[in-house]
Task: structure prediction
Amino acid sequence: MMLLYISEILEDYTRKKARQALTQSLALHIDSVWLVREEQEVLTPISQIQVGDRIRVHTGSVIPLDGEITDGEALVNEASMTGEPLSVLRNAGHSVYAGIAVEEGTLVIKIRTLADNTRIQNIVSLIDRSEALKANHVGFNGGLFLCN
Result:
């Protein structure tokens, strides 16, 4: 009985660590972006960006916020969203999402959602809440088996 209890504790610990590692790998750690104002780029803290602002994302950067491309063309890697390993061409009129990497090219993006409401942030939040969504299970508690 004691071994069953220890194995349950180890399983919970492993599950929590795996979820934490996944959450950290998906989280974006971007402090500033290139805000486009009158065809000039100004390095601006991401906290000052508003819905409707236009930002420029260069080759090698990750798109920080969800939006629609208004100018430019780029090959982007959408693996963080779709799992598809091949780059796709995106240009004016296409929607793009936070966490997508720009592999080649430059994009000007009109911001649609702020950092707290991006698709990638919603995925991270769902992972964080997954413990509450976990199905009931049989557990060991002080010598008694409990069904939750």
